[in-house]
Specification:
This protein is of the alpha+beta class. Among the domains are: 65 residues, Helix Hairpins (Orthogonal Bundle); 243 residues, 2-Layer Sandwich (D-amino Acid Aminotransferase, Chain A, domain 1); 86 residues, Orthogonal Bundle (DNA polymerase, domain 1), CATH 1.10.150.20; 67 residues, 3-Layer(aba) Sandwich (Rossmann fold), CATH 3.40.50.10190. It has 24 helices and 24 strands. The strands form seven sheets. It has a five-stranded mixed beta sheet. The protein has a five-stranded antiparallel beta sheet with strand order 14-13-12-15-16. The longest helix has 24 residues. About 3% of the residues have low confidence.
């Protein structure tokens, strides 16, 4: 396959097709990294996919997001710990990689805010600590709760463990706000890591792979005494809920944290230009090896908190901050085999099996190969010496073969045209609009392919879906192969079948009274589930966690989504309604409609809904008069940019739609408003000016 075509040469149809393919690929990597704890790409390649994805959106403004890496945060909290609902979501950061992108980041901020080139824009720079994110809640100065990031909305309660970390005060000094949620990173120094691994070896235990893994594993111990025995540290760099901000700038907040007795990083500086940011990046990179703890980049943040508030967030990350990542690390090894895995959508994914090699201090033996075009383009063959690249704590990518070391008898790899599991034909579907084949080859076995069925069940029970504790991937495979579970509803009939003597799990090897009861209790605990997680669990193509939340928030009830999707034929009002949801778009709307017209899916849904009840997502906690309303912005806005207006509406709990429909509650029209304004008048929808909108939102003079 040739290198990706220049974006400027793509037609709208070609861009839409590539956008959809990338979205699906990114969603797969998200699941492997956050849900399965089995990542299959390096940070560098993972980020390259996102960069291409975002570049497509920038070049084609009408292209909406089917499912994006930029909208994912982390992994669902474990059932082993009590759950903590974050009052303010703990989101992640966007990434940049080249020095020229630093100026682009500052320029994006200026455009969003409508700032001129000469307007002052101070930005902080600080090391990006490679550890485990943690939120500390202090009330009247006392530490009352600590939680991991989890999925960004809900984390694990690790209060008892955090209390054992010497650097974290149980009571703050001075006069902190009555409520203060401090966020930062729990990490382990290199020296402490080496000493810990020496103790692990002396005790006959497996050593940890790296300081980040050891810090995360130490904090997430069920026994606080184990955490207490591990040398953990903490840097504070952000905050969540605060009853009264002690400062008006990022630098001021960090200074306040330090005055309260919290550890903060001494390398944080305030910069006035992109050149100063780059200089600090270089300075920190030079100090990286001597810091004594792991960092993987530098974080830039707009200093003024009022500007941060105006900039707001996208689904995954703040607009006012980004992480400038360090370059990836490389090594050479030998490719011994190529293994083909079959996913829940039938995609055949090649995985390289390598001679174990140390890359950046971590031993790796697997690497991603993406698809057959990637193998052909790089001419990768079994037996080749290859260069592998790793960035972050994930499986590396293969950059290419070392040709002068290639065995003389090597042959090009032939990608299978039949499913390795069920033997069905594996084909590359042709896009009806472009006439070009998809990059991914898929098994056509669908309902008869055991691999697809098993992967769908794994997805259904995974952490970010139904999150059934104890029903892991190996057990799902066992139950499927033994005929105990064939579809998702079968999971929920296990307790009844056991009670009636139709099955006998207690007699199975590795099971007993306690393990069976624990599994059944976990199943019973999932008979009610938030609608967004229910939708995500269904495994609809292009519908990952973010789009599941969008659909759940828009429709509120599952039956409303189901009825609309059933009626969502091409050109119908129902299809337009789904397509009109901000961030959804044509590709996702089509996928949702296709899912609900499949008879087998409807049969499984009917059976599933007899066992479980999806409930509305947690209501938006906003007293704003626009909370819950659907708003459309049209025309030119004079006091803020369009993006800023949308961000404000979403902060206030409103839903922002791309076009006007019967379900629109309010249209905000500026000068030059055209067809959308006319449509609103035709439908009798309330229309207000930008000035009235600001007053309604509580931002007016």
């Amino acid at each position: 396959m040739k290198q990706p075509a220049p974006i400027e040469s793509l037609s709208a149809a070609q861009a839409r097709r590539e956008h959809a393919r990338l979205g699906e690929e990114i969603a797969t990597h998200d699941r492997r990294y956050y849900t399965d704890d089995a990542p299959s790409v390096s940070d560098a390649e993972y980020d390259a996919l996102r960069q291409r994805y975002e570049a497509l959106e920038a070049a084609f403004p009408g292209l909406t997001t089917p499912e994006s890496l930029t909208q994912k945060v982390g992994t669902a909290p474990s059932e082993k710990f009590a759950k903590v609902r974050h009052r303010v979501p703990m989101l992640s950061l966007g990434n940049i990689f080249a020095e020229e992108e630093v100026a682009e980041f500052a320029a994006r901020v200026r455009r969003f805010l409508g700032l001129g080139e000469n307007a002052r824009l101070a930005i902080t720079a600080e090391p990006k600590i490679d550890g485990l994110s943690c939120s500390l809640r202090f009330e009247r100065g006392a530490l009352v709760q600590a939680a991991t990031r989890g999925d960004g909305y809900e984390g694990e309660d690790v209060t008892a463990n955090v209390r054992t970390i010497g650097e974290i005060p149980h009571h703050l000094k001075g006069h902190p706000p009555d409520i203060l949620e401090v966020r930062g990173e729990v990490y382990m120094t290199h020296a402490d890591f080496v000493a810990l691994n020496a103790r692990q070896k002396d005790a006959g235990k497996t050593p940890f792979a790296n300081p980040r893994n050891s810090a995360a594993g130490s904090l997430r111990q069920l026994d606080p005494a184990i955490t207490a025995s591990r040398p953990l540290h903490f840097f504070a760099y952000a905050w969540g809920e605060v009853s009264a901000l002690p400062a008006s700038t990022q630098m001021g907040m960090i200074a306040a944290f330090k005055s309260y007795g919290l550890p903060v990083n001494p390398l944080m500086v305030l910069c006035q230009t992109a050149d100063e940011l780059i200089a600090q990046y270089r300075a920190i990179e030079q100090q990286r090896a001597s810091l004594g703890y792991d960092i993987d980049g530098v974080v830039y943040k707009v200093d003024d908190l009022a500007l941060q508030n105006r900039l707001g967030f996208v689904s995954r990350a703040p607009r006012w901050a980004t992480a400038h990542k360090f370059p990836a690390e490389r090594a050479t090894t030998v490719l011994r085999a190529i293994e083909i895995n079959v996913g829940r959508t039938g995609a055949l994914t090649p995985l390289a099996k390598l001679d174990p090699v140390t890359v950046g201090g971590v031993v790796v033996s697997n690497a991603t190969l993406h698809n057959e075009d990637e193998i052909i383009r790089k001419d990768i063959r079994i037996g080749d010496a290859v260069t592998v690249q790793r960035a972050g704590d994930v499986i590396p990518q293969i950059l290419g073969p070392i040709l002068d070391k290639r065995p003389k008898d090597s042959k090009p790899y032939v990608f299978p045209d039949k499913c390795p599991v069920c033997g069905s034909a594996a084909v590359r579907e042709i896009d009806s609009k472009t006439g070009e084949p998809e990059a991914v080859r898929r098994c056509t076995g669908a309902l008869i392919c055991p691999a697809q069925a098993v992967e769908r069940l794994k997805h259904f029970a995974s952490r970010n879906a139904f999150d059934i504790e104890g029903l892991g991937e190996k057990l799902i495979e066992q139950f499927f192969n033994d005929g105990l579970i064939k579809t998702a509803p079968d999971i929920f009939t296990l307790p009844e079948r056991e009670r009636r003597g139709m099955i006998n799990l207690r007699e199975r090897e590795g099971f007993g009274e306690l393990s069976v009861n624990n599994l059944f209790n976990a199943v019973e605990a999932r008979r009610t589930l938030p609608l967004n997680r229910f939708i995500f669990a269904l495994g609809i193509r292009h519908v990952g966690e973010t789009n599941a939340r969008r659909l759940a928030r828009h429709f509120e009830l599952f039956e409303a989504l189901r009825e609309t999707a059933r009626a969502a034929t091409d050109g119908s009002e129902a299809r337009a309604e789904i397509n009109n949801i901000e961030g959804i778009g044509e590709v996702v709307a089509e996928a949702v409609a296709d899912f609900f017209v499949e008879n087998h899916n409807e049969e499984v849904l009917d059976a599933l809904l007899q066992q479980v009840t999806p409930v509305p997502m947690e209501a938006v906690t906003s007293s704003s008069p626009v909370a819950g309303k659907t708003i459309v912005f049209t025309g030119s806005l004079e006091r803020m940019t369009r993006d800023e207006a949308k961000a404000m509406a979403e902060r206030l709990g409103a839903k922002v739609a791309a076009s006007v429909s019967k379900k629109t509650d309010l249209v905000v029209a500026g000068p030059g408003a055209g067809s959308k304004l006319a449509k609103a008048a035709e439908l009798g929808i309330e229309t207000i000016s930008e000035e009235d909108w600001l007053k309604l939102a509580g931002q007016g003079d």
